[in-house]
Amino acid sequence: MQAWMWLGPVIMLFVVLGFVTLAILFERKVIGWMQSRIGPNRVGPWGLFQTVADVLKLLLKEDIVPQKADETLFKLAPVIAFVPAFAVVAVLPFTDSLVFADIGVGLLYFIAISSITTIGILAGGWASNNKYALIGAMRSAAQMISYEIPLVMALVGVIMAAGTLNLSGIVEAQKEMWFIVPQFIGFVVFFIASLAELNRTPFDLPEAESELVAGYHVEYSGFRFAFFMLAEYVYVFAMSALTTVLFLGGWNPLFGFTFLPPLIWFLLKFSLIVFTLIWIRATLPRIRVDQLMQLGWKVLLPLALFNIFLSALLKEIPGIGSYY
Amino acid sequence: MQWNGEFLAFFLLSVMAIGGAVFMIHFTRVVHMVLALAFTFLSIAGIYVLLHAEFVAAVQVLIYTGAVSILMLFGIMLTKHRTSDHSDSRSRHQLLSFVGVAAFFGVIMWVIYHTPFSGGKAETAKYTVANLGEWVFKQYVIPFELTSVLLLAALVGAVILAKKERDA
Amino acid sequence: MEKVLLDYDWTVMAPEIIIAAAAALLSLADLFLRENTDRRFFSWFSLAAVIAAIFFTVSRFGQQPYEILGDTYRVDDFALAFKTAVLSGVGLVFLLSAWGVRQEEIRFRGEYDYLLLAAALGAMIMTSSADLITLFVGLELLSISSYILAGIHRERYASNEAAWKYVVQGGVASAFILYGMSFVYGLTGSTNLYTIQQRLVEAYQTGYDAFVLLSLFLMLLGFGFKIASAPFHMWVPDVYQGAPTPVTSFLAVVSKTAAFALVLRIVLVGYIFLYQMQIWQQVVEPVLLVLAGLSMVIGNTAALHQTDTKRLLAYSSVAHAGYLLVPLSTLGAVLFESTFYYLIAYLVMTMGAFTVAALLEREAGHGNISGFAGLSRRSPGTAAAMTVFLLSLAGIPVTAGFFGKFYILMNALSTQHFWIAGIMVGTTVISYYYYFGIIRQMYFRPPASKDRMRVPMVPALLLVIGILGTVGLGVVPEWAVHWIGDLQWMSALTPLNAGPPGP
Q1: What is the pLDDT of residues C75-91, one digit of tens each?
Q2: Which top-level group of life is the source organism from (chain B) (predicted)?
Q3: How many domains does chain B fold into?
């Protein structure tokens, strides 16, 4: 038991790192395929070691700290950005037994801890002493604050239906019906808001390369840059897992197909979400800053509030009330 | 007093919280101040966890460490200001503040050491989020509703005080 | 067994609900009205809401006390009396605003009215709750709305300065109150004042005496700020001077009344046992009396060399806070009666004085005392009214102010506190100098312009109300005294239902 306490997280770290490596390759392959290209295919069979080579390249790069930068903060920022990303993984239940920290307010913990990353991004952007970096960081903060509200509001419906903030409890509550069906509005709002929280296309304004060079990490190189990238992809992992848990029934099988083990079910749904994220990236253009704010405050937030109201109303109706 | 994990955690978190607060006052660059403050908020959240108040801890991180600190940083970066705060206040004033604060600290410490703490430990584990929710929406529904009026007033106030002059 | 929401009779909350609904309606109306529509009717609408609220408040007099949800809301005679005073003050402020706040000057005319309603709601809650959380939320609602109102005249530098100073110092004061309250909660495990009443005694007797006193003094530190007593009065002159005049009158009249209701309720219910244990007389009373004495001395002497009318009235307000603290510290037999009488006397005379100040500010374009020069020739009626208010503020016989001071003085003498009575009389004499300074300006200085000053209907009405109140309370004080004496003040101190709620 004691050994697992220490070993578990280490294994998890490697699993996550492995996922990140694969996800980047997968993303490039899928996008390539969608754009009628081949994608990386030189390093290893089917380009399998492309990401590994990229990481090696990053590690060997010169570590540059700009002269006018705030050195301490510049070095600290990638750490502030990455640590929360890994910390949120702790509460994710992959199966009913495979969960590291089964805490009562798991969902809230996830949302809360993930918001700390923005401080890292903001600090990094500011410490670089570069206007592109600063603008990128500011956009990131504005975006995160604006979209966190609909994100949390969209979850209220789920919480009301499950009656708990515990993630395992929420999965248990989906034995009969996945929340994506009764909470469809909540799911849509959550999914869009989570795209924005992940800074992914079409919400990748903080690092819009065509206008901001590279956004908040423009001055970073080598290992520190890798940390920011890592944080971003770990969030893709965590957010996809969270979406699976909250709306797709976690490890619950579909149509009672219990011959597949729960972990496989989880992975299947999880991969579907990851694929959708990549698909969206290849499909949608980036939106403008004002459109971003309009969408968050004038569309998603009212929708999320309406969803809460609707869920509360439907909960009182006999028959379908049990699904809410 | 036993040196168990809980005490160690409490000790570390307290030092972090106080340290963050001290650095917040000590730093001269405003951005560093806010980051130190965020650090204090985070440490306080840790203390809440030790008290089995997970919900409060999560909300503390979400609201204070997340939203409030970021809004502060945002505000600082958006407005024109001197990047560092040159303290040119009179030393007499500082001395007076120091004496006041030291006296207050002395009184509090005296009160704490003067009091023989007795009695058992409270059972904190039984207070769950569900309990909290029931209390807020049953017993404390009047202050809860009033808080919404309060927030609305604050929101309106923030908007009218910060709104740009159209004619200017 | 356990009473839940709908088991209660919520109609007792009618005044609060009316005010909240009016504020909500106005904010919606403000949203849908066209930008350049005159929003002055907002003030009349608010006034109507306030009058309706007064009606529902007054109609509850004489009925049994009632509480909702473990005293988070409570109506007893104490609450009703103070709420009536608060609402009357708010009504007068709205009357003044309907004339005195113009959209050309203050662009946020609509916001002004519903923030004032929100502040009034906070003040009402402060008078009628016996739960620390509710009381604190009410206090903050009042405070935050007041901060904004003080700074609502954004084009004026002084208004910005007022809001800034007010918010910083007010925030610190709230922090002290909250810190004190957290100790109370730690000692008793409850936010209900009556449960606190019982458990604080136990805590005091089982070795936590220092903490009990610490909690009291921390709260008093914050309360001192909210009632504008020295040495926490630094914000008063700047804020009173910088804020728009109707807002200043609101701060002077309504905030002070509500703050006293809050202080009386918390201190008397929670800490009355100290009196029976003789600790009050040894520790708390001297501190409070020193605060009271300091307020009188500082307020009255600093007012001597003021040249701005509102600033002068601000220092006078500090001095009055000092007088008002005397009954609380000595805890005489007529504690509630004398405090309440003084507060309503202060309400009518201060509202009158601020109305005149607003009139002259509009006329002269500045708030300097020299604006009063020759007022007796330009508008004899206004000058006469101002004289009455000033005499009352100074405490000259046959005015409300005289009888209020007399009442407090009697209370102090009957409890054998001669030195504070001496300070009271001495500082009152000092105050004659600056009050008479204004009278001298009005009657013996040549006016800046010869043409007569026109007094519009609304301020004239306010002046008439002020004079009726000031003279009426002064000539026939026994009516008010009888009415006040018949109220069941002690019902505020006793719980309604046995058995403490809470974990």
Answers
A1: 888 999 999 999 999 99
A2: Bacteria
A3: 2
pLDDT in tens, A72-114: 888 888 888 888 888 888 888 887 777 777 777 888 888 888 8
Per the CB < 8 A criterion, the answer to whether A324 and A161 are in contact is yes
Nearest CB among A104, A122, A141 relative to B129 is that of A104
- What global pTM score does this model have? 0.90
- Tell me, yes or no, whether B7 lies in a domain: yes
Global ipTM: 0.88
Residue B167, pLDDT > 80, answer no
Q: What is residue B81's predicted lDDT score, i.e. its pLDDT?
A: 58
Rounded mean pLDDT of chain A? 84
The answer to the question of residue B41 being in a domain is yes
Q: Is residue B76 part of a domain?
A: yes
Structure tokens, B3: 């040196």
Contact A105 B77 (CB under 8 A): no
Domain that holds residue B21: 1-80
Q: Do B76 and B1 fall into the same domain?
A: yes
B133 domain residue, yes or no = yes
pLDDT score for C138: 94
Contact list, B138 vs chain C (CB under 8 Å): 4-5, 69
Q: Which residues on chain B are in Cβ contact (under 8 Å) with C121? A: 146, 149
From A230, A229, A246, select the one nearest A193 (Cα to Cα).
Answer: A246
In this predicted model, what pLDDT tens digit does every residue of C406-449 receive, in sequence order? Answer: 888 888 888 888 889 999 999 999 999 999 989 998 898 888 77
**Neighboring chains of B (3 or more beta-carbon pairs < 8 A):** A, C
Q: What is the CATH number of the domain that holds B32?
A: 1.20.120.1200
H-type alpha helices, C101-208: 109-127, 132-150, 157-188, 193-205
Supply the angle between the helices C109-127 and C132-150 in degrees, to the nearest 10. Answer: 150
| Per-residue confidence band for B166, with pLDDT thresholds at 50, 70 and 90 | low
pLDDT confidence bin for C19, thresholds 50/70/90: very high
How far is CA A44 from its chain centroid?
Answer: 29
pLDDT tops 90 at residue A71: no
State the pLDDT confidence band at B84, using cuts at 50, 70 and 90. low
B140 CB neighbours in chain C (<8 A) are 69, 72, 133-134
- B28 neighbors B84 (Cβ within 8 angstroms): yes
Asked if C320 and C345 count as a contact pair (C-beta separation under 8 A), the reply is no
Q: How crowded is residue C276: how many other Cβ atoms within 10 Å of its Cβ?
A: 9
* Chain B: residue whose CA lies nearest to C204: B115
Between A95 and B104, the more confident residue is: B104
The answer to whether the beta carbons of residues C161 and C463 sit under 8 Å apart is: no
- For residue C420, what are the CA distances in angstroms to A280, C280, C286, C311? 78, 17, 10, 26
Tokens of C315: 């220092």
Residue C131's SS3 state is strand
Identify whether the C-beta of residue A160 lies closer than 8 Å to the C-beta of residue A170: no
Residues 6+ apart with CB under 8 A from B3: none
Among residues B50, B80, B110, the one where a domain terminates is: B80
The tokens describing B108, both together, are 């509090």
Q: For residue B110, give how far its alpha carbon lies from the nearest alpha carbon of chain A (Å).
A: 38
Tokens 């007893």 label which residue?
C76
Q: Is A193:A295 a contact under the CB 8 Å cutoff?
A: no
Pick among A143, A165, A289, A297 to test the B interface (most B CBs inside 10 A): A165
What pLDDT band is residue C500 in, cutting at 50, 70 and 90? very low
Q: Is C342:C323 a contact under the CB 8 Å cutoff?
A: yes
Cα C436 to Cα C87: distance, rounded to the nearest angstrom = 31
Name the 3-class secondary structure at C73: strand
